[in-house]
Amino acid sequence: MADALQTLVEKLQARFGAALLECRLDRDEVTIEIPPDQAIAIFTALRDDSDFAFKQLMDVCGVDYSTYGDVEWATNESTEKGFSRGVEERATGRGAAAIRQAAAGQTAAGRNRFAAVYQLLSVPLNQRLRVRIFALDDELPVVPSVIAIWASANWYEREAFDLYGIAFEGHPDLRRILTDYGFVGHPFRKDFPLIGNVEMRYDPERGRVVYEPVSIEPRVLVPRVIRKDNRYLSQPH
């Protein structure tokens, strides 16, 4: 299997050359990164060339890299009782500081904030390939739609648009698929508050559902691990 994957990496590098921003084999998985302006040509070749034959698109998902690589736990030192409590407000929902950091869109690696990730399958060659495309504009993330290459991309791209706000240029019907049409924001973005932006209720006087500003007071919950076993019980004198 490892030899076959390494051969795939070599074929990808030979076929696409400098068009590949990244091409690596890690943990028996091949991942490539490609620029948006060459995505359609590369995807078409991946589907049609006999060396690849990735006829099936298994999934498309969005990724928000705004806090990628950040941690809020002091894990450098640990004891028999575990790690420390949270020391930095970096997790989603922890507070205003965490939301501001995520909204800034400054990733640890200096990359763009949003990416679309494609999972491809070649049944004849029994191989899989992960393809990643970063949107060049963090304020309005746009990548090309691959629906003309793989029809199965239709609902996948709508889901990524709904949850991450990534627009797929060329999609014939790009609209929300999981949240309501009047929903505000994109719930999988890391600056989206855990309590949401609005809440809904049925108004009997109007005879319909109405949206109002959320009325829940945010709470910050930091987990604390308490282990109850014989190792930590006080020994009798």
What does this structure look like?
This protein has 237 residues and is of the alpha/beta class. Helix content is 19%, strand content 23%. The chain has a 5-stranded mixed β-sheet with strand order 1-2-5-4-3. Strands 6-7 form a two-stranded parallel sheet. A two-stranded antiparallel sheet has the order 8-9. Strand 4 and strand 5 (127-134) form a beta hairpin. The longest helix has 15 residues, at 2-16. The radius of gyration is 23 Å and the shape is globular. The protein starts with a helix and ends in a 24-residue tail after the last strand. The mean pLDDT is 83.
Number of beta strands: 9
Largest sheet: 5 strands, mixed
Measured as a percent range, the helix fraction is 10-25%
Please compute the radius of gyration using only Cα atoms: 23 Å
Number of helices: 4
Key traits:
alpha/beta; 9 strands; 23% strand; two-stranded parallel ribbon; five-stranded mixed β-sheet; 237 residues
In terms of topology, how is this protein built?
Elements: H1 2-16, E1 22-26, E2 29-33, H2 39-48, E3 56-64, H3 96-104, E4 114-122, E5 127-134, E6 142-144, H4 153-164, E7 167-169, E8 198-203, E9 208-213
Summarize the structure.
The chain has 237 residues and is an alpha/beta fold. It has helices spanning 2-16, 39-48, 96-104, 153-164; strands at residues 22-26, 29-33, 56-64, 114-122, 127-134, 142-144, 167-169, 198-203, 208-213. The chain contains four helices and nine strands, in the order H-E-E-H-E-H-E-E-E-H-E-E-E.
